[in-house]
Amino acid sequence: MSGTMEWLSIALILNLLKNKARLILQQVQDERRDIVRLSLIVIAANLLLCFVHIKSEPCFSYDFTQYHVIDTSRQELYPHGAAHPYREFMLHVWIPITQEEQCPLILFSHGLGDIFNGMTYTQLCQYCASRGYVVASVSHTYGCKPIQLSTGKSAQYLFPAPVHHQVGKNMYDIEADMWVEDMVRALDECARQNINQESVLYNKIDMSRIGAMGHSLGGSTAMQLCRRDSRIGAAINLDGPLYGTDACAPIYQPTMFIIGSFVAPGLSIFSPIISIRDALMWSMHFNNASLPLINTFIAGQNSDVYKITIKGIVHDTFSDAGLIPDSVLTRWLIDGTLAHTIVHAYVGAFFDCYLKHHYVPLLQELVSCWPNVTVEKSNLSGVFPTIF
């Protein structure tokens, strides 16, 4: 712990030096030599801050377990066999091995589609576990990549189903509402295992410190879970739109949006490459249809909101697939490992701030230490000190 505090102290000093350099830089606009010199100081301080943030992170090993959750209070709305009348799903849990009695909990919801499930974000989930969080990732049955239940049954991807074709309702709103109930039940299961003396989760979770996070439709689900369950203290939406009942209504928990921005000079929606790359179609649809709604939602919030935009990544980058180079898109994308490092850094910083109540230098920055990242903040409560 003392080593971490030393690094954080260095971070405060570097932050002070950087801001001072920026102030001086504004006052010596006519001195070209000084501008170059001070610019280098700013860049160096930014890079050192990134290093300090990574260096100060704890790194715990972790255990892994899974639960087959059957919610007998809900009938399965997807087509199903007589042996499976109730809603059921797999819950994948990473448990940090720490000296602390209890850890905060992060609930994770994946993206909709036959390439995503609760086990296709292992890099992100394991990273959070290594930082001292219990991570519970849900595989939303029939709305995800085929997943095998503990009974041996393989649940296939069936979206959209007849239940989604309702007059006057959006099919994604219907699915998001279904997923929110999955997440509530997953949280209930974590709470139940937390008091079960025979469970590997026994007394591992601090039920007063719970966050939600999701990708794509799972991002919508994380936001909706804040409205549905007061146990959620903070939420992150990874490149997700806003779907579900009253999806644009304000919520009261701190939130973060991390958005992928793909810009390829010379490409338009009519370019042949667009039609063969779902990730590009998604980016264009998201920018045109979803982003304006998100901006409106952020403007109406009374709680702390962060919007992090990462240039040079696509929708799939947030999952484990982001580490696999795309031979066609490589020239327009940043390295997948770098992209994951950036996403992990902001996810960790946000939850460290709002679930662990730590001072986090990265969240104080108006300009990111990564040149391809844009940071926007609004309605910050000022609970944590700002360095001047």
Give a quick rundown of the structure.
By secondary structure, the protein is α/β, with parallel strands linked by helices.
3D architecture notes:
This protein is of the alpha/beta class and 388 residues long. The protein has helices at 2-27, 32-55, 122-130, 171-194, 217-228, 272-275, 278-299, 336-354, 361-364; strands at residues 62-75, 86-96, 103-109, 134-139, 147-148, 154-155, 205-215, 234-238, 255-261, 305-311, 373-378. Helices cover 37% and strands 20% of the residues. Helix 1 packs antiparallel against helix 2 (32-55) and helix 3 packs across helix 8 (336-354). The longest helix is centred in the N-terminal third of the chain and has 26 residues, at 2-27. Strands 1-2-4-3-7-8-9-10-11 form a nine-stranded mixed β-sheet, with helices on both faces. Strands 5-6 form a two-stranded antiparallel sheet. The two termini are 26 Å apart.
Please describe the topology of this protein.
Blueprint: H1 2-27, H2 32-55, E1 62-75, E2 86-96, E3 103-109, H3 122-130, E4 134-139, E5 147-148, E6 154-155, H4 171-194, E7 205-215, H5 217-228, E8 234-238, E9 255-261, H6 272-275, H7 278-299, E10 305-311, H8 336-354, H9 361-364, E11 373-378
Helix pairs in contact: 1-2, 3-8, 4-5
